[in-house]
Amino acid sequence: MRYAGHYQTSEMGGIMKSHESDGRKERIITLRLSDEDAERLYIKSGEAGISMTELIENFIQDLTFSRRSNGSDEEDLANQWFERCMFGMLSNRNFLKFIIERGEYEWAAKTWTDLQEAKKRLAIGISDFCDQEEMDAIRENADYWKEILEDFYQQFEEYGDGGGKGMEEDFKELVQWKQEFDVFMRGGSS
To answer: What does the pLDDT read at residue 94?
Structure first.
């Protein structure tokens, strides 16, 4: 198949709409492959009569239980591969895994960022732009955010049999991951 603008033309000459209408976006993922692996991948996709992109998309759809998956058997096999490669097992004590499993990554990243901004503001102190009342409110918010994040991190330490890299490092890693996630979801690269 060849692409013509926003439409895809088949080998038979028919025109099909691109994937934009079904909510899919083009995303850029960089693969680091040896020449041998790249050649084998290209040949494998050629044997199937599909592009390398379609081959990888299909695997991802099975791995993520997409509504476009190739079926439950394929989903099971893709996830067995994931577990056999130990991707799931190696991250058992990982803070990022802990927070993603709970669906708390957006809240936690925002709260951590807000806390860091409050700390910066408190370090500046009272100024022409901030009086004592505003400083008290900032301090109160910072104390609250710190307390709930510490409680949350303690839950992770209990879950993770002793914790990870430390609260500061783990939250910095979360914020970095969340920023990259946001770029990727807007159609950027990873």
So the answer is: 81
Of all helices (H) and strands (E), which one includes residue 2?
strand 2-4
Q: Are 111 and 148 in contact (CB under 8 A)?
A: yes
| Segments of the chain with pLDDT less than 70 | 1-21, 88-93, 160-163, 189-190
| 88 and 149 Cβ atoms separated by less than 8 Å | no
What lies within 8 Å, CB to CB, of 24 at 6+ separation is none
Q: 4: which 2 tokens?
A: 């013509």
- Confidence (pLDDT) at 160: 65
What CA dihedral angle connects 25, 81, 1 and 21, to 10 degrees?
-30
Burial class (CB in 10 A: 0-12, 13-18, 19+), 108: buried
- 8/1 Cα distance (integer angstroms): 7
